Structures are given as C-alpha cells and as structure tokens.
Amino acid sequence: MKKRGFTLAEVLITLSIIGIVAALTAPALVKNTGFAKVGPALAKFVNTFEIATESMMHEEGTSVYRTGDKISADIIMLAQHMTMIPYSGKNYVFSNGAGLQDYEVKSDGEYLAELQEMMDMILGKKDNPNNYTVLEYTRLLEERLNSGMATVWKLKNGEVMIVLPAENEALAGKGAYKGIVAEVLVDIDGDKAKNKAGKDVFAFLLDKTGTLIPAGSMIHKYIDQNGSKYIKQYSDICSSSSESLDENFACTGKIADNGWSANGLDIN
C-alpha cells in the first residue's frame, strides 16, 4: 500500500496556523516572564541593601541612619559597601502607572561623583595630588548637602535607586522600628524611556535601623497606626495602571506580603 504524505498546501496551512497561535500567545508569555521576575528582583534588592547597611554601620560604629541632611551623607558612605555609582544625569523621571503624569527627581549627579572621587583619594584608592583630607571632605558635604536633596544611584545590575530624605522629622516607630528617615525608590529594570510606578518603579520606607519597609505592607500599617498616603486610603488596593501614585506604590507592600510574588495582583 502506497503511503501518502502531506501536500505542500497542507504544510503551508499548518505552518500558518502555528504562526497565528504563536503571534497571539507570545506577548502573554513575555509578559508573564517579566511579571514573574518582579517579586524576586525586589526581594534581592532589599537583601542587598540591608546587608550593605549592616556592613556600613559596623564599620562606622553606629546602629542607625541619621535624619535630615545627614541621611544623604550616610547613603554616600553606603556606596563603599554596596556596588553603586552616582547616577550620571541630574534628573530621573518616572510616571504614575497610567503614564499620565511625570515626576522628576532632581539629584546633583556630578556633585556625587566629585565626592566619590575625593573619598577615593583620601582612602588611597586614587592619587591625591591636592592632598585632600577628611576635614575638607566634611566641609564640602556641609556646604553642598541640604535636607531637600535626593541622591540617585546606578546599581551593579543596572537598577536605579533613588533616596528621598524625609521632609519632616522621622516618623515615630513602633516595636523594633525606630522611625522613618527616607523614602527609597527602586527601578528594577533600569532607567528606560518610560519608567512607571507599580510596574518597574517601587517604593520602600527606610527605617533608622536600616530596614526597608515596603510601602503599603502590613509592617507599614503596623508602625503607622494613623495611616499614611500609602495606607490610610489604599491599604487594600494595588493597581499599577491607576492614575494614583499612592495606589501604584501600594503594590510594593502587596508583593512583599504575598511572599515576594506578584501573582494575583494588578501588575501589568
């Protein structure tokens, strides 16, 4: 009995069907792959930051981050223990989840680079033709730092970290937590054309002890009984597509409370 193979037409029809199915499912597969990386990326960032903080505090002989303009100086010292360099630009821009409003974070990147170079000279990592001293470094800090200054950093894996000093005195803590000294934003996929809160930009509160508290998490709610911009109105809301920056950043806490997983959350 003669075996009959596939005709050219049948093969072409089959390939066409496969191509259509692939075109329909590929975007979803890519999206789910990126979606699955969000939680682990945030967990890794928190772990790296807190280990580096512990190392810095041990070397400096302290147990807390300072408030006001001092927090910016502390973060600069953190750079000695965490692989990060000053952000090359002076402005970092991200939008709300809906992409309808931009937020600009100003940071004197050139100034931070100047401080870093001076510290490298003082520590003997680079030649020091001007014989810079710690006293001169401290004087430069006092002249240039102010309470409204943000520091923006490029991390080893391409992530961007933004540290915004608390506008007022540190928020009162509770239990093991000693008070909030800054807000820390992290862009987990680096500085791209359009950075969006709740999608690739997430928010943490930095406790004096060096603990990063995910915005909108149960821990955040525990230490801030009176509520906050992330807790009071949005404690049960996580939406990365909302026009509300508060709702966007509340997703950070939801991911943390969900075992560092974005499964089942409005992250898209």
How many helix segments?
6
Sequence of strands across the biggest β-sheet: 1-4-5-6-7-8
Task: Classify the helix fraction into a percent range.
Answer: 25-40%
Q: What is the radius of gyration?
A: 23 Å
Number of strands: 8
Strand content: 15-25%
Secondary-structure element series: HHEEEHHEEEEEHH
List keywords for this structure.
globular, 6 helices, two-stranded antiparallel sheet, single chain, alpha+beta, six-stranded antiparallel beta sheet
Topology, please?
Blueprint lengths: L7 H53 L8 H10 L5 E3 L4 E5 L6 E5 L2 H14 L11 H11 L6 E5 L4 E6 L14 E8 L13 E7 L4 E3 L3 H6 L21 H13 L11
Antiparallel strand pairs: 1-4, 2-3, 4-5, 5-6, 6-7, 7-8
Helix pairs in contact: 3-4
Summarize the structure.
The protein contains 6 helices and 8 strands; from the N terminus they run ααβββααβββββαα.
Describe the structure.
- The chain is of the alpha+beta class and 268 residues long.
- The protein has one domain.
- 40% of the residues lie in helices and 16% in strands.
- Strands 1-4-5-6-7-8 form a 6-stranded antiparallel beta sheet. A two-stranded antiparallel ribbon has the order 2-3.
- Strand 7 and strand 8 form a beta hairpin.
- Helix 3 runs antiparallel to helix 4.
- The protein is globular.
- About 2% of the residues have low confidence.
